[in-house]
Design brief:
The structure is a single chain. The chain is mainly α and 195 residues long. The protein folds into two domains: 49 residues, Arc Repressor Mutant, subunit A, CATH 1.10.10.60; 141 residues, Orthogonal Bundle (Tetracycline Repressor, domain 2), CATH 1.10.357.10. The chain is 71% helix and 0% strand. The protein contains nine helices and no strands. Helix 4 packs across helix 6 and helix 7 crosses helix 8. The radius of gyration is 20 Å and the shape is elongated. The N and C termini lie far apart (69 Å).
Length: 195
């Protein structure tokens, strides 16, 4: 029975979860491992999270916000009337961030990929943020698009091969950047030809 009066913060738990995941991997990490890293009992962690899946969801949400959404928000917030060029930069950054973390922080990227398959609400929220950013960029640009959100959604899904974790095995292909720019050029050409 846990008699510990220790109060933990969300940040402390999620930091310990990240470090433990890096050490043991997603499949081998247990709530007990995370509790040991924090020097508390497993029962203490269950006061904050019902089970390992809930803890992984919280860790994934934090990881996505810090590593992906935060830098994308900075690009989105730039006042730019460059339209498609701004949109291309945003999507290229999304692609580069996901590919970077797949290579350089594999265990946490694996956690993200696992949770992607299991938590539709979290992933819908993540996609919603990205499509919201893209919609704002389109609306602020000089593209004269009737339905900016529809274009944002279409572009997001058309480029999913370059940023969805299910396609990570393709990202070492040397032609990946050229293929990304081919799709972006096709969209840009279609937009300009319609105006």
């Amino acid at each position: 029975m846990d008699k510990s009066p220790i109060q933990l913060t969300k940040e402390q738990i999620l930091e310990a979860a990240e470090e433990t995941l890096r050490k043991f991997g997603v499949a081998r990490t247990s709530v007990t491992d995370i509790a040991k890293a924090l020097k508390v009992s497993q029962g203490t962690l269950y006061r904050y999270y019902k089970n390992k899946n809930e803890l992984l969801e919280a860790a994934t949400e934090e990881w996505l916000q810090e590593k992906i959404i935060k830098p994308l928000s900075e690009i989105s917030a730039k006042n730019s009337e460059e339209g498609f060029k701004h949109l291309r930069l945003y999507l290229q950054t999304l692609m580069e961030l996901k590919q970077h973390y797949a290579r350089k922080d594999g265990e946490l990227f694996s956690m993200y990929a696992k949770v992607t398959m299991e938590s539709s609400a979290l992933i819908e929220q993540h996609i919603g943020q990205i499509i919201g950013h893209m919609t704002s960029i389109i609306a602020a640009g000089k593209m004269k698009i009737e339905d900016p959100e529809r274009l944002a959604r279409s572009l997001f899904y058309a480029t999913s091969r370059f940023h969805h974790p299910g396609h990570a095995y393709e990202w070492d292909n040397p032609a990946i950047y050229e293929e990304f720019h081919d799709i972006m050029n096709l969209f840009e050409s279609g937009i300009h030809n319609n105006h």
